[in-house]
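Homework help thread (please don't just give me the answer)

Our assignment gives two proteins as sequence + structure token strings and asks us to describe the second one. The first is just a warm-up. Here they are:
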Amino acid sequence: MSEYRNWDKELDRLEQGKSQYSWDELEELITDRLEDEKISEQEFETLMRRLMDIDCEL
């Protein structure tokens, strides 16, 4: 499974209150994946947009 898919599923878990990570941890981990070139800039933007939407809901 791709890095992007893994983080997308983790965001699903965060929305459901079942994530093993906090919002801040996810922000840092996703940013690290971009810096390590594990995800593309476009994937990063998509994940961060989702994360920001979740933050607004909480």
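The one we have to describe:
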Amino acid sequence: MTKNKWDKFKKSFSKNFIDFLMIFAAEQDFINKHRHKSSIIKEQDRYGNDQRNKHENKG
């Protein structure tokens, strides 16, 4: 159990800081996933969607 105000502050600060880092990491992950999808969509718009490669790779 916390003994004084400093101990309470350290405990709450540590918890809040870890929460912030987890939110930041999740945001970065979200941005990077959508950036990758966006670049794929741009390539498909530029070059078209090649269906032949998908069928050749399955067999």
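TA reply:
I won't write it for you, but here's a hint about the kind of observation we're looking for: The CA atoms of residues 52 and 58 lie 10 Å apart.
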